[in-house]
Amino acid sequence: MTEKLFYKYMRLEDIKIHEIFDSRGESTIEVEVLDEKLNSFSAQIPSGKSRGKREATVLSFKDAEKALNELVRKEIIRKNFNSIKDLDNFLIGLDGTANKSRIGGNLMLGISVAFARALARKENKELWQVLNEKFWGGLITGKKPLIFSNLINGGAHAGNNLDIQEYMVVVDPKDKDYAATTKTLIGFYKELGKFLQAKYNLDKLTIGDEGGYAINFESNFEPIKIMEEMVKSVGLTKSFSLALDVAASNFYKEGKYNFGGNEISSEKLNQILLDYLVRSNLLVSIEDPFDEEDFDGFKELNVKCPDKWVIGDDLTVTNPELIEKFAKEKMISGVIIKPNQIGTVSEACQAIKVAQENGLKTIVSHRSGETEDVFIIHLAKAGSVDAVKIGAPVSERILKFDELIK
């Protein structure tokens, strides 16, 4: 990957780490760097709850603080770096492990993002512009990414009876601006809540980790049916469709899937998901439909659904090598990009580029344990990706919608 250079070097005068708390109230980290003029730049790193086995290591605040104080700071302070990639490669080499276990993918990404923000300030540009120029050579397509918004939560993101982790609407801005699109989405989210509360005679709606409704349903298909009927009833079928994040690794054990109260095979789960696609005209995308080691399951579904998005997340963990491998083996038609799965800005950009070069759909995504940081929106803009996955349009996630509007 060639990164365009604008300055001879960039130097950091100090790095600090702070403990903060994510949207679930759990501890995570914020990294702060000081440039040569002692200007401060920071990055908050989401924790994530549903993680793939091959993801970069996530260190606790105390372990990240120890790694910074005992290993990173003395090696990096006042050292000259020619570029974001130069810094990232130095950190990767300093860590020296395959899964970034010494420094931690979260600490490494915090330094990488904060450094990129410092560089953007130095060049007097927006962060997305700097990323676009340095990793995509300044090519801007003007594409408006779709918005994947998780409105009903299940699985690891909720305490209800749904096995499927996320039921999303996919919103196409088409000719509208993002402000109008977001307003429509917020209105739909509120109307869905009112409908669910009335239908199930609830005093209060339970909310899941990503801001979606997390009540009990009669079956794993029922939320799809309800959301589809509502999209049709309010006349949004031209701009709204549906997507699932099955997160199947969470209910897979010893070769079987515990789904809908039954222990079933990969072949049976495949049949169920194909049936969902037949029964729902609006269902266009299924993420992590099988366990991350169930390669045959992925391939069979992808081959049978050439007009749908079969998305890898736990399978691919934002790793350029894995993305290329599974794309060539026809296991997926799209991929999730989560920077803290891989641990550096340059590797996340490379993951997008590899996916695009292999004809995959690209979705830059938030995490369940989110922060107020809006880096993913800048990454999405820089890479002209196909979609952004943000969560429900509430709480700290509204900031990401706001950044998309700018």
Write out key terms for the chains shown.
alpha/beta; globular; 15 strands; 406 residues; eight-stranded mixed β-barrel; 39% helix; four-stranded antiparallel sheet; 13 helices; 19% strand; disordered N terminus
Walkthrough of the structure:
With 406 residues, this protein is of the alpha/beta class. It contains 13 helices and 15 strands. The strands form three sheets. It has an eight-stranded mixed β-barrel with strand order 5-6-7-11-12-13-14-15, surrounded by five helices.
Average the pLDDT over all residues and give the rounded result.
93
Strand order, sheet with most strands: 5-6-7-11-12-13-14-15
Sequence stretches where pLDDT stays below 50 over 5 or more residues: 1-7
Class per helix and strand makeup:
alpha/beta
Radius of gyration from the alpha-carbon trace, in angstroms:
21 Å
Q: Strand tally, please?
A: 15
Instruction: Give the SSE order as H and E letters.
Output: EEEHEHHHEEHHEEEEHEHEHEHHEHEH
The biggest sheet amounts to: 8 strands, mixed, barrel
Q: In DSSP terms, counting alpha (H) and pi (I) runs of 4 or more, how many helices?
A: 13
Approximate shape: globular
| Separation, N- and C-terminal Cα atoms | 29 Å
Q: Strand percentage, roughly?
A: 15-25%
Percentage of residues assigned to helices: 25-40%
